[in-house]
Structure formats: structure tokens, C-alpha cells
Amino acid sequence: MAQTLLLLLSATCLHTAGFTRENDLGFNQPAVLSGVQGGSIEVPFSFYFPWELAKDPQMSIAWRWKNYHGEVIYNSTQPFLHEHFKGRLIMNWTQGQTSGVLRILNLKENDQATYFGRVFLQTTEGMKLWQSIPGTKLIIHALITTPGSPFIIPSAVLTAGLEDTRGQRNPSLLNLGAMVGMVMAKVVVIIPLYGWVIFLWWKQRPAE
Ligand SMILES: *[C@@H]1O[C@H](CO)[C@@H](O)[C@H](O)[C@H]1NC(C)=O
Ligand SMILES: *[C@@H]1O[C@H](CO)[C@@H](O)[C@H](O)[C@H]1NC(C)=O
User: Fold this and answer.
1) Distance from the CA of 129 to the center of ligand 2, in angstroms?
2) How far is Cα 181 from Cα 178, in angstroms, rounded to an integer?
3) Closest residue (by CA) to atom 8 of ligand 1?
């Protein structure tokens, strides 16, 4: 009875071990990373496999972007680098290492995508090729730029100017590109406006 139990236990253990071995293949990289436009980002990666390497493993690392079957942007073997990343992609990885760092410099807004690491190598059981399934989602934050205002405009004047022009001749005054233009427009509108107010006040005064 005890012997049967032991046999059953070892059978379970063996099965578990076998199951683990089959899944002992992967490509690790962060799930999400975020960078700032103009900055740089580092994507650390590592991979593991259950096989024995061939004498000449001919390891090759490649990166795809956008989706699992997306365009290849880099291949260490050819070597190949996508035009979009010219001069901005650095691979810190050397032949035979199972880890490294992908670095993207001078981040652009349209670098925002998912990046998938991919490895090719020769084993005693033949050539193997696999890739990260989830990849690394790269989020790019835009630089926060505040439009420079060369003039300090009293808020009362600004409000008056906006209220008096809104819905009249120039409803898009707010959208004027240059601050200078905006100030000029207000001066043009406000001076006659103040003149009109003063005129009304002056006209009404003798009636009191
Ligand atoms: C390359 O990455 C390794 C760690 O993987 C690090 O120790 C080394 O400093 C890096 N080299 C460069 C030039 O970034
Ligand atoms: C890189 O390119 C070579 C040659 O085309 C190819 O054999 C290899 O599989 C590629 N590497 C990866 C990781 O896709």
C-alpha cells in the first residue's frame, strides 16, 4: 500500500517535471514602460530555453513592433535597422548572452507601440526561434510646453476684450496663433470700446 502511494507520488512528480520542462521556454521583457518625448528608454530583456546549445549556436536577436506579427525593426544577424530608428536604437547584447538591453534614444511620439523581442539559436535538437507574446508596451508622454506670453495683460482687460468680441465680429479671437496678434487685436477692439463707453458716460452726465 505504502509502496503504491510512493509510486503514484513519484509518477506525479515526474509528470510535473516533464510539464515544466516543456514550458521552460520564454522571452522576458517588461510589460509596460513609459518615456518622455526626446528622452530615451531602456528595455531590459532575457530569454531561456530547455535545450542544449549547439557548438556554434548562431544566436540572433530581433525586434518587432506594433503587433506580434508586426514589422521587424532590428535584426542582429544581418544586421538590419528600420529607417524609423536610424541612429536611435542601441542594442546592448553580445553573442552568447541570454540577456541584454535595448535602448531607444530621442523618443518620438510615434514610437508609442508594443515591442516584441525575438530570438533565434541553434541547439543540439535543431534550430529554434521564439518571441515574447505580450511584448513591451511603450508609452510616450509629450513634453508639456506652455506658450510663452511676452506680455502681462491685466485679467480685467483680457476678460473684457474676450467678452466684448465673443459672438460678434471675431468669435475665434482665442484661436489666434500668436500672443502678439492677440494683444494687438485686443488693443484695436478695446480702444474704440473704451472710447465708446467714455462717450456714453460723457453724453449721459449732463442729463443727471
Ligand atoms: C550593457 O548591459 C549590461 C547589463 O546587461 C550593463 O552592465 C552594461 O553597463 C551595459 N553597457 C552599456 C554600454 O550600456
Ligand atoms: C535575423 O535574420 C536572419 C537572416 O535573415 C534570420 O535567419 C534570423 O532568424 C533572424 N533573427 C530573428 C531573431 O528573427
Assistant:
1) 9
2) 5
3) 92
